[in-house]
Each structure stands twice: as C-alpha cells, then as structure tokens.
C-alpha cells in the first residue's frame, strides 16, 4: 500500500458515527422538517395510476361514476320543477320596477310583463312533489331523486355559463369536471376512455368542445366524443389493408420512438400521446362492442324509447348505462334546444318546451330506473340540469312583443335534479320566492354543486389541486361548499 | 374628510404588531453576536452597537404605536400594564446597554455593567413578548395543544374530553362552547375582551358586552350575537372581524337553533328539539358521527408482493380510498383469459382487506363461492350476470358484514331466500331477472323489513 492510500485510509478510519451525528444533525432536522411541511408536495406523483399507493379518493366514496345530463340552452324551471301559483295570478301584469333595478338581462328591455307557468303542475309520489305535466315519466321517480330549486350562477350568457358549470370558470382554458375526475380517479376499465361525451340534438353546446376539454391537465383526460352513427369514434377503425397485427407493430414502433423522445426532452405530453395511441388500439375492440345498442333486448330499448342508429337523447341514455356497466368514470350527455326566448314555436315555453321534454323525459327516467334495477344507481351519480334558469318575466326583446311565450336568461334561480351516488331520495332542496325569481333559503351555487359532486366521489374539492403557472388550481377555484343537506 | 382622533390613533396603532418584531430581532441579534464574539474571539462590536441602537429606536417607535393601540381599550388592564411597562423597560435598558457599549473604554465600570444590562434587556424582551402574545391570542393559546404533563406544570387544567356521542353530548359544553372556542374566544377572552364581551362561560355570555346583552333567548333575530355573525361579511359589524375565519353555515345554524331553544346551558343535545337537519349539522362538528363497519375497520396494509400476484392474475385491485387498507377488486370481461377457480383463490391472500368484490359477468361457478365465503370483511358483492344458483349462495352465509348483494340475472330461485336471510347485515339485494317469483321476493321482504329488495321493472 502506498503512502497516499494509507493516509486516505487512516483519515477514513477517523471518521466515525460520532462525526455523522455531529455534522449531519442539521440535515436530519431538515429531513424531519420536510416531512412536517408535507411530503406529498415534495415528490411528483401519478394520481391516476392503479398502484397500491394512490392518494385519491381522499375518503370513502359514495359514488364511483357520474352521468351528467346537460340541457344546453337552459330549461325553464318555472315550467318544469318550480311551481309558482302566485306567478299565475300576476300573468300579463307589468313587472314592478323593484324587480328590475340593478339587474342585468341578456335581452329584456324596458318594462316586461310577468309570465305565468305555461304548464299545469300536479303532486306526485309519497313526497307530494309538484312536477309539471310536461314530464309525465319523470313524475314517477320523484321519490328517488333530489331536486334542487335554488341553483344560481354568475353568468347570464350561454357559453360563459356552460364553461362556468363545467370548468368552474367562465373563461375557456380550465379543465372540465370530467377531466378533473378522471385525472384524479383514473378509469375503472383500461379498455375504454375514462371520460366519454355523447351529443344529441342539433349542435354542440355554445361553449364548444371546451366544456369537455382537459385544459391544463394532461390531454389524455379530455372527454372522448362519440358519434351516433357510423364509427362511434372517428378514425378509430383500421383503414382497408391494415390488419390489427400490422397496427400493433406500427404502434410499437411509434411508441418506441416517442419514448426515446420523452427520455430526451421530458415533455409529459409525449407520454400522453403514447397512452392515447394505446387507448385507441384497445378501443378498436371495446368501443364498437360497448356502443352497440342493438344487443339490448327489445323491452329495454322500448323503456328508453331508443332506436338504434338514431342521434337521439334516448339512444345516448341507453349508451350511458352500457358505458357505466363497463366502468367508464364520467359520462357527459348533451341535449340541445332549451333556449326558449319565444322567437319561434320550438323556442316557446308552452309548445317548444313540451317538444324538448318529449325527447328527454322518458329516456332520463328510464336511465334512473334501469340503473336501479341493475344495482348501479347505488354508486352512480346522475345529474340533470342546464347552465342557468329563466326569468319569471316574459321576454320583450328590443321592447317588442315576442310572437310566442318565452323567457329570458336568469342567473338567480334554476332547478336541477340528482339521483343515486349517495344523494338523498325524495328531497326537494331550497326554496325560491313566490315568483321563482330568487332563492330565499338554502341557495346552491354552481361551485357548491361541483364541490358536492366531487365529495360524492370521495374527493375533497379543496385539496384536489393541480400546479399550473405557478399556483395550485382547483375545479372550484377558491369557492364552493359541499351541500351536506342533500347527502344521504 | 378629517379623521377623528380616535381613528387617527387606531390607524397608527394597528401598525404596532408590524413594527414590534423589528426591535425584538435586532436586540436578540445583538445578544447572539455578543455570544459569538466572546466564543470565537472575533470583533463584532460595530454590529452589536448598531443592533442595540436600532433595537432601541424601533423599540421606542413600537411603544408609541402600542400606546395608540391600547387607547382603543378592550384589553385586560393587568396584562396590558405588564406588557406596557416591561416593553418600556426593554427599550430603556436597550438604550442603556448601547450607552455602555459605546463607552466601553471610556468609563471604567461600563465594562462590568454592560453584560448584566444586556442580559436584563433580553429577559425583559422575552417577558414583554410573551405578554404581548397573550394580549393578542389569549393566555391559553401557547399551551393549548401542549401535552397534559406540561399543562399541569403551568397550572392549567387538562382539557375536558369532548363528548361526541349524540345521546350524551351537552349543548353548551360540546356544541356552543366548542364553536365559540374555535371562532370567537381568540378576541373575547379575559385578556382581550373586545367590545367588553367575554364568551368564556355561561355567566359572561349572559352578561353581554358594552352594548348590553347579546342574546335574546328564543329569538335569534333579536339576538345581537346572531345578527353579527349573519351580516354580510363586508359589513363593519360582521363577526368574526379583522378577516378571521367566519362561522360555517352549519355552525351558524347550530347557534340559531341553540338560541331558538332558549339558550340552555346545562341540557343535553337530545333534550332539545332535534330535526334531521340539526343532527346532520352536529355531525359536521363531530357529534353523533356513526362510523360504518367499513370506516371502523382498521387493517394492516397489503404487501406489494401480494398486490402484484393478484394483479398478475388479471384482477384490478385498488384501495377504496387513498389512505385506507380497504380494497375493491374486480375482474374485467375484457381479460383475454376467463376467470378460473385457481385465479379466484389467489384473492385469499388479501381476504381481510378485500371489502368490495365485483365478479359480475364472469364465469364464476357455485363451488368457487366457498372461497368467497371466507372474505369476512366483505361489505359489497356483485355476482350478477353469472350462472350462480342457490347452491352457490349457501357458501356466503358467513359473510355477516355483507351490506350489498347483487345477484341479478342469475339462476336463483325462491329457495335462495333461506341463505339470503341468514346474511344479517344485508341492506340491499338485487334480484331482477332471477327465477325468484314475486311471492318469493315478498316473503324475503316480509322476513327482513329493513332490507331493500330490488326486483326490477
């Protein structure tokens, strides 16, 4: 052993445990401090993994999945759920000034007249809940749902209000509720997307595809939109001459390239892309099977009023049930045409709303009943509602009399219903004033609804954040209280 | 608009807490530097001199601001006096220490007196700081969460264990006082009675504050306390003030309920009118929370090895909530291999931890269920859309905690009732599309009226 090595060895021998304790005590303190500050924030984590150490849900969930039935355009609560006999008496009288001062309306100008309910109401169920004649099927399940009459929002135009409801912010760019949920909880079925979107009616919602976007979350969590006819998902089937084996091989090659790209640059969107390709490959088998409603027995299709191949809400409700059975986490249905200003017949709160109700009433009722008989309503949360409500005043756009009875956009009071997923049965929550203009007891804000939906899934909306642009973002921003009163 | 003199004083007075930490820092720094220069023999005299000087100057400013703040009143006179005079002494002795320091070489006895003056300054500083803290947070703040041994040493009572059982909880001690303690007492205590109001005990609450009583028994709308906590949060009179956390909706409603019930101080919660809503709100503050079987189940976690071997057989195994050891397991119909008895038996490795099991649509057979009968903590079982018959169900009778059983679209007949009724914990049963007749279902319902039986459309 030469002199140098011997010296080095001697020196190491002098370094004892005592040295470690003496020199590193600050470091040990630091490590202890780090665990006090919150180790969960120190290390990166994969929330949606299926590993053993997942952190979500935060607590025991009541619901595992959500079916959200969104009525784009905003149905009138005064014709469907919120019975106001007083408003009937005020029909055609001028609206008092006090109701108009300081209010913002999308179209109402000057002094509008009051508009009484345009449909008859009757009491149903053991709870004696008032429901409109326009919803004959729904009236049979009032004892199974919670109706919230005092929803309110901040936005009085469709696009921002829809964004607000779906993403918690009236401006585009935030992730939608379904994206948050699938990001947090993952999918129950790795062969299908965790978040699927089914459209029916004439067009996409005014807010566009942002309402099922992933915002700043990894893009694999955005909603996958399905079509009603042809391939359910565009470009998912193989082109002519491409067999599934060749597809597999080409995907393996592409993924290998992507992976080396990821190792070089570390962009997580590359990993998202790999996951998306893999998902698409699995969906080639799983989607056509899950989406094929012709396999359903005739009496089930009749129950929904569904005809295979049709772009109908009924078909989509049936599909939603099939997807729920396969463990899809969040299913978003959109129906269209509820914006009833009274400018033409289909947009009137007497005839028009009946047409829309005929399209959704039977399927949505069948959905709740069908989930129940299969034992799925227990852990599937169904939510139905629009983006805002409608005024007790008749719309008078530009000061003129509209050709049909219509109502303007209204932020202060609207009705939604929820069923299953640990929500109370047969409850009417909240109370509006005598004309249904404003919630006077137990008001529920859109952020409260979002907080409650997350709560049912076992997620604390205040803890569920994503770091972006230097701060943690939440679905409910800095607002929202869980509505404990409606939880069973 | 000219500020009147009292708000003028308060405007500056509220800067006291902002300024007061500067002299503290400087004077302590001077002490530390003195220690270092003594130990390590380095010359830090200039820094120490400045530390003492700046400490003294800011100390004097803090005193002036503090006197302005005190002019508002609402503080316990005794504590305030101690804080005031120790504070003034601290600034004075800090100045003296500075004087000795700069005259270290000029005056003979300065050398001797300096060290004891500095030590005295530091002691005074600590005393001042402690009493200042007591004024702001209340004297119980510091040791509120201390272990009982330390609390006893300090002459404090060990905290009363709060009763959280609905039947024995007291409305004042466990509900009202609990809310006051968490949201109000920080300002309304014996050291800092803001608005001359104390919310410490029944006597002080009934006595009210500077504007008289705060509660009209039986009438929340006439009660100042209720009015203040339900105002718009931007209102001047809103309580809790100064941006402290407001009461939650549940807490507000519970106080409203207590006042409506005539503000009883010694009654039990159950002696009052208890609506479902109030019961729910009580749960929110921790009273009457009943844990389900699952929630009360504390289990060792499943090892990674067991987890991996179960996943390797094609099962999807996942914790039900992030921090629990309860697992849900399912077998997907998309798996390329069908479920077999051998595969199923691998689950026995985690038989205590698996509480939710989903085998719907699988090839599960009657005799395989003898394995499932060993999952004693199972609360939810889905074996719908399978070939299960009455023979299979017989294996499940030992599952006393099973709450949810889904056997729709199976081969069960009316004779299954005997086995089903032995499941004493069962709450929900799904038997649509079985061979159980309406009469058979009615018999089950009659024998177990609490059981919800879903027979389908």
Task: Describe the protein's architecture and organization.
The complex is a heterodimer of chains A (488) and B (457). Chain A is α/β, with parallel strands linked by helices. Chain A has helices at residues 3-14, 17-37, 77-80, 85-89, 158-167, 177-185, 244-265, 268-291, 298-304, 313-325, 351-373, 446-456, and strands at 65-71, 121-124, 129-132, 145-152, 195-199, 224-226, 330-335, 380-385, 389-394, 407-410, 414-419, 427-429, 431-432, 439-441, 444-445, 466-468, 471-473. In chain A, the strands form five sheets. In chain A, strands 1, 4, 5, 6, 7, 8, 11, 12 and 15 form a nine-stranded mixed beta sheet that branches. In chain A, strands 2-3 form a two-stranded antiparallel sheet. Chain A has a two-stranded antiparallel sheet with strand order 9-10. The longest helix of chain A is centred in the middle third of the chain and has 24 residues, at 268-291. The termini of chain A are far apart. The model of chain A is unreliable at 39-53 (pLDDT under 50). In chain B, helix 2 runs antiparallel to helix 3. The N and C termini of chain B lie far apart (75 Å). Chain B has three domains: 5-137; 171-284, no CATH class; 304-454, Leucine-rich repeat, LRR (right-handed beta-alpha superhelix). The relative contact order of chain B is 0.05. The radius of gyration of chain B is 35 Å and the shape is elongated. The A-B interface holds A 50, 52, 54-61, 188-189, 191, 285-286, 303, 327, 369-370, 372-375, 378, 458, 481, 484-485 and B 248-250, 277, 280-281, 284, 292, 294-295, 301-302, 304, 307, 316, 318-324, 326, 330, 332, 334, 382, 384, 404, 406, 408, 428, 430, 432, 454-457.
Largest interface: A-B, 28 and 38 residues
Q: What percentage of amino acids of chain A are in beta strands?
A: 15-25%
What radius of gyration of chain A results from the CA coordinates?
27 Å
The succession of helices and strands of chain A, N to C, reads HHEHHEEEHHEEHHHHEHEEEEEEEEHEE
Fourth-level CATH superfamily of chain A: Alkaline Phosphatase, subunit A
Task: Give the N-terminus to C-terminus distance of chain B in angstroms.
Answer: 75 Å
Q: What would the CATH topology of the largest domain in chain B be? A: Leucine-rich repeat, LRR (right-handed beta-alpha superhelix)
- Main sheet attributes: strand count, strand direction, barrel closure of chain A: 9 strands, mixed
The multimeric state of the shown protein is: heterodimer
Total discrete domains of chain A: 1
Could you name the CATH class of chain A? Alpha Beta
What's the level 1 CATH class of the largest domain in chain B?
Alpha Beta
Structural class of the secondary structure composition of chain A? Answer: alpha/beta
Q: What proportion strand of chain B?
A: 5-15%
**Total strands of chain A:** 17
The beta-strand count of chain B equals: 9
Write out the strand line-up for the largest beta sheet of chain B, numbering strands in chain order. Answer: 3-4-5-6-7-8-9
């Amino acid at each position: 052993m030469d002199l140098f090595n011997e010296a080095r060895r001697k020196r190491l021998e002098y370094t004892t445990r005592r040295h470690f304790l003496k020199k590193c005590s600050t470091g040990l303190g630091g490590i202890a401090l780090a665990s006090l500050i919150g180790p969960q924030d120190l290390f990166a984590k994969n929330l949606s993994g299926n590993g053993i150490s997942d952190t979500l849900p935060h607590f025991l969930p009541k619901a595992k999945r959500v079916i959200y039935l969104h009525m784009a355009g905003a149905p009138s609560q005064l014709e469907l759920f919120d019975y106001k006999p007083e408003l009937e008496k005020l029909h055609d009288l001028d609206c008092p000034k006090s109701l108009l001062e300081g209010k913002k309306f999308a179209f109402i100008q000057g002094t509008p007249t009051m508009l009484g309910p345009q449909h008859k109401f009757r009491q149903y169920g053991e709870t004696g809940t008032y429901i409109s004649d326009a919803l004959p099927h729904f009236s049979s399940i009032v004892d199974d749902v919670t109706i919230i009459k005092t929803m309110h929002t901040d936005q009085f135009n469709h696009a921002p209000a829809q964004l607000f409801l779906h993403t918690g912010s009236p401006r585009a760019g935030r992730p939608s509720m379904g994206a948050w949920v699938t990001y947090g909880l993952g999918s129950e079925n790795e062969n299908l997307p965790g978040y699927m979107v089914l459209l029916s009616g004439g067009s996409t919602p005014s807010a566009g595809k942002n309402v099922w976007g992933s915002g700043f979350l990894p893009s694999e969590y955005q909603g996958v939109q399905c079509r009603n006819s042809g391939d359910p998902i565009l470009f998912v089937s193989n082109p002519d001459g491409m067999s599934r084996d060749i597809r597999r091989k080409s995907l393996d090659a592409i993924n290998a390239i992507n992976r080396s790209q990821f190792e070089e640059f570390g962009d997580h969107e590359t990993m998202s892309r790999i996951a998306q390709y893999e998902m698409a490959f699995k969906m080639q088998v799983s989607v056509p099977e899950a989406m094929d409603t012709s396999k359903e027995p005739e009496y089930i299709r009749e129950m929904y009023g569904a005809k295979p191949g049709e772009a109908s809400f009924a078909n989509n409700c049936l599909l939603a049930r099939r997807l729920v059975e396969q463990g899809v986490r969040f299913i978003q249905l959109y129906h269209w045409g509820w914006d009833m200003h009274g400018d033409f017949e289909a947009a009137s709160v007497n005839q028009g709303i009946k047409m829309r109700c005929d399209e959704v009433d039977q399927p949505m009722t069948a959905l709740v009943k069908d989930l129940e008989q299969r034992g799925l309503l227990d852990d599937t949360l169904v939510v139905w509602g629009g983006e805002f409500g409608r005024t007790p005043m008749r719309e008078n756009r530009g000061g003129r009399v509209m050709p049909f009875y219509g109502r303007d956009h209204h932020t202060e009071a609207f009705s939604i219903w929820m069923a299953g997923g640990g929500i109370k049965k047969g409850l009417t929550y909240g109370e509006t004033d005598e004309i249904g203009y404003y919630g006077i007891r137990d008001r529920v804000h859109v952020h409260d609804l979002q907080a409650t939906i997350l709560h049912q899934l076992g997620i604390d909306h205040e803890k569920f954040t994503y770091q972006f642009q230097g701060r943690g973002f939440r679905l409910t921003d800095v607002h929202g209280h869980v509505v404990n009163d409606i939880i069973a | 608009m000219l500020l009147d003199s009292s708000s003028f004083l308060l405007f500056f007075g509220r800067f006291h807490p902002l300024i007061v930490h500067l002299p503290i820092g400087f004077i302590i720094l001077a002490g530390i530097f003195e220690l270092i220069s003594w130990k390590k023999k380095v010359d830090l005299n200039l820094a120490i001199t400045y530390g003492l000087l700046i400490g003294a100057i800011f100390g004097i400013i803090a005193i002036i601001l503090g006197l302005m703040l005190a002019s508002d009143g609402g503080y316990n006179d005794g504590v305030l006096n101690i804080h005031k005079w120790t504070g003034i002494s601290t600034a004075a002795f800090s100045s003296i220490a500075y004087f000795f320091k700069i005259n270290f070489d000029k005056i003979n006895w300065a050398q001797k007196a300096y060290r004891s003056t500095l030590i005295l300054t530091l002691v005074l500083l600590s005393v001042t700081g402690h009493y200042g803290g007591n004024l702001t947070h209340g004297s119980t703040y510091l040791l509120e969460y201390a272990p009982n041994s330390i609390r006893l040493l300090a002459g404090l009572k060990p905290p009363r264990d709060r009763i959280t059982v609905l039947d024995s909880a007291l409305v004042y001690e466990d509900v009202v006082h609990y809310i006051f303690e968490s949201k109000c007492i920080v300002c309304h205590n014996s050291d800092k009675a803001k608005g001359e109001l104390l919310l410490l005990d029944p006597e002080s609450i009934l006595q009210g504050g500077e504007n008289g009583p705060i509660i009209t028994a039986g009438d929340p709308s006439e009660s100042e306390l209720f009015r203040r906590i339900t105002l718009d949060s931007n209102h001047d009179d809103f309580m809790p003030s100064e941006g402290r956390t407001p009461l939650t909706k549940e807490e507000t409603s519970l106080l409203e309920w207590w006042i409506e019930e005539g503000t009883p101080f010694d009654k039990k919660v159950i002696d009052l009118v208890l609506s479902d809503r109030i019961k729910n709100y009580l749960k929110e503050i921790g009273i009457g929370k009943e844990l389900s079987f699952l929630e009360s189940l504390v289990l060792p976690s499943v090892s990674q090895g067991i987890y991996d071997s179960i996943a390797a057989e094609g099962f999807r195994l996942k914790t039900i909530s992030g921090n629990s050891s309860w697992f849900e397991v399912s077998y997907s119909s998309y798996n390329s291999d069908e479920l077999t008895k051998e595969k199923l038996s691998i689950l026995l490795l985690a038989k205590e931890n698996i509480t939710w099991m989903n085998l719907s649509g699988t090839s599960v057979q009657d005799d395989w269920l003898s394995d499932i009968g060993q999952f004693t903590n199972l609360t939810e079982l889905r074996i719908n859309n399978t070939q299960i018959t009455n023979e299979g169900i017989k294996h499940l009778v030992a599952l006393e905690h099973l709450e949810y059983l889904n056997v729709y679209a199976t081969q069960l007949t009316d004779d299954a009732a005997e086995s089903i009724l032995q499941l004493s914990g069962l709450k929900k049963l799904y038997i649509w599309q079985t061979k159980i007749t309406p009469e058979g279902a009615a018999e089950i319902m009659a024998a177990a009226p609490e059981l919800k039986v879903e027979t389908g459309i």
